[in-house]
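thread: overnight batch results

M.L. [08:02]
morning all. the overnight job finished for the chain we discussed friday. pasting input first so we're all looking at the same thing
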Amino acid sequence: MKHLKWSTQNTKLAKTDTISFNLPAIEACPMAGICASVCYATQGAYRYPKVKAAREFNFKLAKDNPELFEVYLLRDLKATRKRSIRIHDSGDFFSQRYLDSWFLAARSFPDKQFYCYTKSLHLDWSLKPHNFVMVQSFGGKMDAAIDITKPNARIFATDEDRIKAGYQDGNKDDTLAQRGEILIGLVYHGGRNLTTVQKDVFK
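M.L. [08:03]
and the structure it wrote out:
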């Protein structure tokens, strides 16, 4: 019996007993902006063949056969004991049809908590279920549409920049996102050096 490819290896997620579902970085991120040039999900362990293949499998199924994707999604969620589901530590909502599949999943499992960081603000989020937390993420093409009175996340070059901007520390674990906190700061920890332009954006 085939299943979707899930991840439990992320150290942040392990702290909150969370399982995550992922897609390829950049390729499945239609609203990526400057974040694409330093995306952590294109570095390190994310480049391992097995990791890349798992994300490609998920993306192909969700994109080419959304009905079958929903069957797999609901079946897998029914089988897992995890009550916290992070949608994407790489990739994003690439279509309304795909986002609606996740809304269906959240409605089908009201005892589970779903959450995500997203730049796909061009999609219709009006039917988002109560157990689905959406954190708007800066660094994409839709930054002007972000409502800073609602959960939002920024990448910062340093902790000093994060603190100065009044954002909470979201690097330790995902509890801030899970609770739907308003200001979540993530200090850049990728292997690529930030350029002067990027440092100006991520502060």
